[in-house]
Amino acid sequence: LDQVLVEGWNEGWEDWFGKSKDYVFDFVTPYPDFDVKMLNEYARSKGVKLMMHHETSGSVRNYERHMDKAYQFMADNGYNAVKSGYVGDMIPRGEHHYGQWLNNHYLYAVKKAADYKICVNAHEAVRPTGLSRTYPNLIGNESARGTEYEAFGGSKPFHTTLLPFNRLIGGPMDYTPGIFDTKLDFMGDLPHGQVQTTLAKQLALYVTLYSPLQMAADLVENYEKHMDAFQFIKDVAVDWDDSKYIEAEPGDYITVARKAKGTGNWFVGGITDENARTANFTLDFLEPGKQYVATLYADGKDADYKENPTSYQIRKGIVTGKTKMSVKEARSGGFALSLIEATPADKKTVKKWR
């Protein structure tokens, strides 16, 4: 993993939500127990960076007041990417998330960040309209109901089968996938107190929902319980040279294959809505005459997004462009498939796909 995102690092979080205050954060003052210099040095010693978080609490005027200083603070401390947030009613009053004044602000923030060589991942911002083609430092936007809304907002299982056909037309989306523990105890008895998905479907979202910035959004201890499945998150690319939309019915299912940028490797993701189905397809997008090690992460036989979301199975074998695949998807389930060019050693040790 390239970076670690830390939210709540800066002073003001005990008094921000729903208070409609013009001044909450200055975006440069950490809490006493968050040693910015030490933590960034430690991250560098591990070959990673910290990602910055700027929650505006809706006070856009205050954010613009502090923006140069905040971005300079990032540059001085080794940060090169920021997740910004716009939770709450806008200040100034009368302005709204999708209004012209806010659109002007989002563009201003992206252009200003570019001056400091900083990438922006904006949450609660306006839906993109291709802006990242002009400003590639706009590396991803949320700007639609992300994973969290499956639990506390009641998004339905078909939601992620629609996003590639509406929200994602305008640019990459940070959906924050990769949730392995889907049942949230702190939600109590709410009828939608869990993420509406199987574990295998969460892996598939890394392929079906395009973003050059992908999160591994669950707790570390939840990944440690399923390190064999987490291997796909370690392997999957985040940007692509080619994409093939193999099968799809908006609102029902989608299967996508993508060629990892600068390599010969492919990754496939397939998801379905609240109805179980079987995905049938041929790997004819692979280079003719080549062999690949296929690793399939699929729903277990007893998988179900409500009753048994963490049931999954992993299969491995040598495939070619002529190999036909048939993968069963549970209710609100899916599958993820990695296709890595086979080495001479692989061809001797890995069995042919059956």
Structure report:
This protein is of the alpha/beta class and 354 residues long. The chain has two domains: 1-143, TIM Barrel, CATH 3.20.20; 146-354, Alpha-Beta Barrel (TIM Barrel). The mean pLDDT is 95. The protein has a six-stranded antiparallel β-sheet. It has a five-stranded parallel β-sheet with strand order 1-2-3-4-5, covered by helices on one side. The longest helix is centred in the first third of the chain and has 17 residues, at 60-76. The protein is 24% helix and 24% strand.
Tell me the layout of helices and strands.
Blueprint: E1 3-5, H1 36-45, E2 49-55, H2 60-76, E3 81-85, H3 100-115, E4 119-123, H4 131-134, E5 138-141, H5 148-152, H6 159-162, H7 199-208, H8 220-224, H9 227-235, E6 240-249, E7 253-260, E8 266-272, E9 277-282, E10 292-299, E11 312-319, E12 324-329, E13 334-341, H10 344-349
Parallel strand pairs: 1-2, 2-3, 3-4, 4-5
Antiparallel strand pairs: 6-7, 7-8, 8-13, 9-12, 10-11, 10-13
Helix pairs in contact: 2-3
